[in-house]
Amino acid sequence: MPRVLRILNRFNLGGPTLNATYLTKYLAPDFETLLIGGQHCDSEKNSDYILRDEGINFTTLVEMKRAIGLNNDIKAYRKLCQIIREFKPDIVHTHAAKAGALGRMAASHLNVPVIIHTFHGHVFDAYFNKVTSSVYKNIERYLASKSTKIIAISENQKMELCEIHKICAPEKVEVIPLGIDLCKFKEDKVIKRQNFRKVYNLDDDEIAIGIIGRLVPIKNHDLFLNSFKRIKDSTNKKIRAFIIGDGEMKEHLKELSSKLNLDYLNTKGIPQNREKASVTFTSWIKEVDYVLAGLDIVAMTSLNEGTPVSLIEAQAACKAIVTTDVGGVKNVVVPNETALLVPNNDLDAFTQSMKLLIESDDLRNKFAQNSCSQVLKDKFSYERLCNDMRKLYFRLLDENK
Prior knowledge:
Blueprint: E1 3-8, H1 15-26, E2 32-38, H2 48-53, E3 59-61, H3 70-87, E4 91-95, H4 97-109, E5 114-119, H5 130-145, E6 149-152, H6 155-164, E7 173-175, H7 189-199, E8 206-212, H8 221-232, E9 238-244, H9 250-259, E10 264-266, E11 279-283, H10 288-294, E12 297-300, H11 309-316, E13 320-324, E14 339-342, H12 347-359, H13 361-371, H14 374-379, H15 382-400
Parallel strand pairs: 1-2, 1-4, 2-3, 4-5, 5-6, 6-7, 8-9, 8-12, 9-11, 10-11, 12-13, 13-14
């Protein structure tokens, strides 16, 4: 049985952890997998529970941290080399930047037959200045030369990697979209919606707009709040905003809400005394299917994205979407059928599009119905992901014989 060493930056809530979970579980018994993740960040939601719920064993490499630190990075590299010597993998598959750098260097040093790296996103846009971005690009070009195959999670991401950032030749890149378990989003939707709206004291005629994800600069929640403020001051519809997630920008976003004269609640769990406000900070909610059932519109304002899981889940839950047109978004939604796409960080355009979905019940319902398409569910199913990856693994192993 071929052995796979799978290495992630860390087990935070999002696509990489979900993909690692399904690939580890469902590629067995064809492949034996050892799963390694770095140290969890306090500012992010720890998603160890996803792995535990699926009965998956994993190892945390505490020296592999999000921030660059020479001492810890050297220790993490040495430990990965030790793990490779002991486990003797046929394939090392890394996910995201830090794991990709340390894991591929260790695998190359020890002559692992097949080395694969998945870009779940990239840091070449909107993260750093041009000089720093150039340094990271050169590092990724070197690492790509040590890789058997690079996996992009969308056609758009492949284009960016190969044509814009020149990381590697197109023939080295395989496109394998994310895959997740979407079944729960169509189960008990009416009951889940009633429960969510009861907990957050939402009236039947109130339109709930939610944005789901880490509260970090790249997600650009400022755009969401500024747009919501403009719409609230100009519409006759009753609207409320829900910011689902947590992170380093939370205090800033609360201050911004105050500056915009938006009353807000900061809750963890059930709000007390059936309080309600224009904006509710819910922190992380594990049951995202329950959240999506209760919302009417899902927004995303990111400056950069790989393949946004929140938008895949929103469509599985049959919700209308308004989003910035960044990264792999176009490969996830169906423009003007399930989602309105607007230019990156364009307040006027975002406000206009979100207001259109708010004020047109017919358009909002049409987008919601389109989102329920079985084609979208099949495209992003974990079964498809595992089948694609299984075929790729066997092909690369055969080519290496």
